[in-house]
């Protein structure tokens, strides 16, 4: 059966899908899907082959969209995706993760929901709301959002999440109890002497390396970090990068030491690529050293940003790397980042990029 | 309890295949009317109301020309419009 690669693109105005064969030289674009709703995240569930899209519409509220035919038709549901009466309602769904036959959704204001029937019905993982720090969580620029959702692929009880700007939290008991895991990550926006709090860091993207160890990476508002112990302690890996600010991080599908980042020029300098020249930065040694990858990327007048969920790799060999810009362009590399091509442009502002490999 | 005539926003009809622009509903209040719509087309209630509960901020429900809330009573034969507000970018 031929292999097909789908790049799933969440945008401000619906879902788009770019398709190619495993050569990844020629791409076909389809969309917009999901009635042009603002979509924060689109994922493909490897186990079921189902595509899910998450977002929220100013008129109609939050929902998770679902396609069981690789994007041709879509349904939507938000049954149970709600806080109790009287509480601030769920505004939007920001992140999705499928693992262990369950589908997780992170929402704004920050909370976690789970579905055991493929997104048709949802229940609230209330333990997170009961965390003693909950009343002190402050929203980041995009709101109080649970945007990073990392269920452990081996142990269904273990989940890491990232909330802007409450920080990284971890549960080892399926969501009943949570603990902050931010030790070693900075909060430069706090007063002097309070820059390493227990929680309140502005994590931008949290990812887990392949390979079964508890190796995590994060792009933070204030630096890039690596943790070899599941987030209990973090070490800075920003030396050698052009700034300490950016949004996305993407792991290699097989090599735990390879990570891709896309630093921007700084949080108060416009938040576009440094010097208006686009580059993805790759480490092959867990963040010890970095290489800028620019071949095929715009090297003048590039005033775009790339958001927290808008970079991904595929699991082909050699791995593909993809990112989508605030200006609606999608760039792809079929050789682990060495060379790049623009495979779609003039899309709405891109919120998320994920990949899905299917046999058809 | 009498029957009211509800006109749905075309965007709402697009979200629920099989729904129609105009529908007759038996209900005594706007809240009960939305519940009846939700029973007919599961999920439609969540698109019109949030969990406070309240009519969503950018949705307007008009009853015989006046903007309504969930507890607004409905008279038999009332004309109800569910309209999306000016919004977006």
Automatic annotation (TrEMBL), chain A:
InterPro entries under this entry?
A: WD40/YVTN_repeat-like_dom_sf, Xyloglucanase_GH74
Q: Per its UniProt record, what SUPFAM superfamilies does this chain match?
A: Oligoxyloglucan reducing end-specific cellobiohydrolase
Which GO annotations describe the biological process of this protein? Answer: xyloglucan metabolic process
- Source superkingdom: Bacteria
Q: What is this protein called?
A: BNR/Asp-box repeat-containing protein
UniProtKB/TrEMBL annotation, chain B:
The record ties this protein, via SUPFAM superfamilies, to:
MoaD/ThiS
Top-level taxon: Bacteria
Q: Which Gene3D superfamilies match?
A: 3.10.20.30
Q: Which segments does the entry list as coiled coil?
A: none
Q: Which PANTHER family match?
A: SULFUR CARRIER PROTEIN CYSO (PTHR38031:SF1), SULFUR CARRIER PROTEIN SLR0821-RELATED (PTHR38031)
Instruction: State the name under which the record lists this protein.
Output: Molybdopterin converting factor, small subunit
Task: Tell me which species this is from.
Answer: Aquamicrobium aerolatum DSM 21857
């Amino acid at each position: 059966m031929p292999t097909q690669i789908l790049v799933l693109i969440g945008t401000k105005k619906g879902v788009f899908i770019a398709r190619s064969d495993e050569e990844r030289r020629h791409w076909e674009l389809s969309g917009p899907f999901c009635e042009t709703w603002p979509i924060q995240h689109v994922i493909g569930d490897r186990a079921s082959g189902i595509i899910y899209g998450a977002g929220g519409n100013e008129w109609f509220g939050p929902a998770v969209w679902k396609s069981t035919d690789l994007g041709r038709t879509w349904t939507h549901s938000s049954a149970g995706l709600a806080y109790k009466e009287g509480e601030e309602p769920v505004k939007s769904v920001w992140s999705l993760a499928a693992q262990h036959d369950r589908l997780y959704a992170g929402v704004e204001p920050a909370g976690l929901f789970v579905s055991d029937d493929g997104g048709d019905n949802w229940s609230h993982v209330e333990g997170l709301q009961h965390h003693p720090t909950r009343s002190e969580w402050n929203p980041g620029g995009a709101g109080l959002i649970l945007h990073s959702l990392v269920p452990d692929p081996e142990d269904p009880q273990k989940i890491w999440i990232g909330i802007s700007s409450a920080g990284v939290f971890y549960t080892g008991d399926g969501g009943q109890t949570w603990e902050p895991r931010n030790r070693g990550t900075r909060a430069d926006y706090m007063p002097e002497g309070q820059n390493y709090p227990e929680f309140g860091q502005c994590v931008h993207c949290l990812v887990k390396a392949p390979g079964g160890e508890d190796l995590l990476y994060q792009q933070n508002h204030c630096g890039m970090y690596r943790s070899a112990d599941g987030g209990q302690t973090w070490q800075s890996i920003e030396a050698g990068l052009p700034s300490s600010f950016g949004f996305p991080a993407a792991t290699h599908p097989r090599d735990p030491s390879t990570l891709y980042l896309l630093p921007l020029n700084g949080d108060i300098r416009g938040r576009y690529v440094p010097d208006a020249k686009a580059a993805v930065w790759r480490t092959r040694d867990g963040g010890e050293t970095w290489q800028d990858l620019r071949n095929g990327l715009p090297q003048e007048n590039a005033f775009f940003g790339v958001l927290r969920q808008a970079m991904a790799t595929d699991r082909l060999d050699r791995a593909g790397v993809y990112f989508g810009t605030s200006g609606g362009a999608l760039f792809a590399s079929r050789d682990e980042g060495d060379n790049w091509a623009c495979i779609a442009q003039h899309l709405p502002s891109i919120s998320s990029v994920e990949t899905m490999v299917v046999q058809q | 309890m009498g029957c009211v005539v509800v006109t749905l926003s075309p965007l709402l009809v697009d979200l629920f295949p099989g729904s129609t622009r105009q529908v007759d509903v038996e209900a005594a209040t706007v809240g009960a009317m939305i519940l009846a719509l939700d029973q007919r087309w599961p999920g439609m209630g969540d698109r019109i109301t949030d969990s406070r509960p309240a009519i969503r901020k950018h949705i307007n429900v008009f009853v015989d020309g006046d903007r309504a809330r969930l507890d607004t009573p409905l008279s038999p034969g009332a004309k109800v419009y569910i309209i999306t507000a000016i919004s977006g970018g």
